[in-house]
Amino acid sequence: RSGSTGPASKMAGADGDDSLYPIAVLIDELRNEDVQLRLNSIKKLSTIALALGVERTRTELLPFLTDTIYDEDEVLLALAEQLGNFTMLVGGPEYVHCLLPPLESLATVEETVVRDKAVESLRKISQEHSPVDLEVHFEPLVKRLASGDWFTSRTSACGLFSVCYPRVSSTVKAEIRHTSDYDTPMVRRAAASKLGEFAKVLELDYVKSDIISLFTALASDEQDSVRLLAVEACVSIATLLPQEDLETLVMPTLRQAAEDKSWRVRYMVADKFSELQKAVGPEITKNDLVPAFQNLLKDCEAEVRAAAANKVKEFCENLPEDNREQIIMTHILPCVKCPEVRLNIISNLDCVNEVIGIRQLSQSLLPAIVELAEDAKWRVRLAIIEYMPLLAGQLGVEFFDEKLNALCMAWLIDHVYAIREAATCNLMKLVEKFGAEWAQNTIVPKVLGMANDPNYLHRMTTLFCINALSEACGQEITTKQMLPVVLKMSNDQVANVRFNVAKSLQKIGPVLDSNALQTEVKPVLEKLASDADMDVKYFAQEAISVLALA
């Protein structure tokens, strides 16, 4: 590379020919040591092309770019992208084939991102070729790439078959169908990833005769990265085939993928499950996909189970109505052993409920809910707490009181603070759902009972619950039932409890009437404000000022 005052700019100035100037500057800039400068000049290509005009862009700029571009990947990437928008700058569709040589060489470079961008631009400009130009110029390029010595050009060819196939003569179509050299894993990966879109443009007979054999080979490739891409192709192929051919042509391969020794392949099957279900239809779903789905929900790898769990709702919604309930009750719910699968069903409870009705659901789900509520992992317990208001709304108050109330109270004394905190918040949401009277009869007595617990953490939970419940329960319950307990706790031996009494009085103060504030709350806060403990003093004084009791 030379500096920016290279021979080209001297040459342009020497004979005073200004029309050479843009290309001379470009040549200099592309020889500059600074990558950023080279990158900027490529990004200005369209301006340079406009200055040169269409003919000189075709005869000078494009040959120059084709011959001289060996550069950093980011410069090549910018060039590949620019060329995709160059049709009008070379004179329109009639001359679009002039863009093929530089894009062809970019489609063979080592860096995948550059190749992919070149293929994207080639696909774009293929649409602007007339059918004749497509056969004369574009299809030979695809053939050259497909038979190239390096895997790089052959992977690029895989992305181009589908765009030229529909628009060429039957002889050329036959050539495209039989262009295949899949000797390296990289090319087989590219073939597997583009197989579905190629199948969509093929005539059905050729899908059966040519594509299926390639699909079967790729789906049993030694590399799992190839096999998992074949699962994606499976969705497209299954959509194209008539029902009677699916059983023989696709299902053996799909069954094999669902039980693949590599978890990544099984994960892909789980991830694409709803699409596969729609593609193969209700009969095959019932006979084949239900057992496969059961296995994925019970898979030994957590990632696979989680991917399958995410599809539970869609899978159940897409089951045929006549046997939907029976399949869910006998095949899906019994698999729900792993926490992530159970949580997923519970989080989609309103949808599952619509499908099978709450009575049956509650009977089959209740053991799962109880088990999760007591799970050793606190994050699982936390997740189920967050679903409690949803469950309560679906199950109704009687069922909730009978089966789940005890669980909600047990969480209040969990050994993990995050659980106790979430359980307190959960009670507030339940009171909002079921009303103050329900709270007065079922929740408040249990909460207040904890005020005498020997463990000071549990006594503090009473205060946290009162803070959360006072507003939802209203003035009467707060004044008559909760306030006396809070005031009594101001004599607790543990300073942490006493300062939380001050914080609670500040919190519930706005719910109380002014009489209770003056005659009951004020004397207790004044006593706490002269407590021996610094924190108790501080929070008592803060409560006095916030409640304006000074």
What is the structure about, briefly put?
The protein has 550 residues and is mainly alpha-helical.
Give a description of the structure.
- With 550 residues, this protein is mainly alpha-helical.
- The N terminus is likely disordered.
- The chain is built from 35 helices and no strands.
- The longest helix has 25 residues.
- Among the domains are: 161 residues, Leucine-rich Repeat Variant (Alpha Horseshoe); 115 residues, Alpha Horseshoe (Leucine-rich Repeat Variant).
Helix-strand blueprint:
Blueprint: H1 7-14, H2 21-30, H3 35-43, H4 45-52, H5 54-68, H6 73-83, H7 100-106, H8 112-126, H9 131-146, H10 151-158, H11 161-164, H12 170-177, H13 185-201, H14 204-219, H15 224-240, H16 243-249, H17 251-258, H18 263-271, H19 273-297, H20 302-309, H21 312-317, H22 321-332, H23 339-347, H24 349-356, H25 358-373, H26 378-395, H27 397-403, H28 405-411, H29 417-434, H30 436-449, H31 456-473, H32 475-488, H33 495-508, H34 514-529, H35 534-546
Helix pairs in contact: 1-2, 3-6, 5-7, 6-8, 7-8, 8-10, 9-10, 10-13, 13-14, 13-15, 14-15, 15-18, 15-19, 18-19, 18-20, 19-20, 20-23, 23-25, 23-26, 25-26, 26-27, 26-29, 29-30, 29-31, 30-31, 30-32, 31-32, 31-33, 32-33, 33-35, 34-35
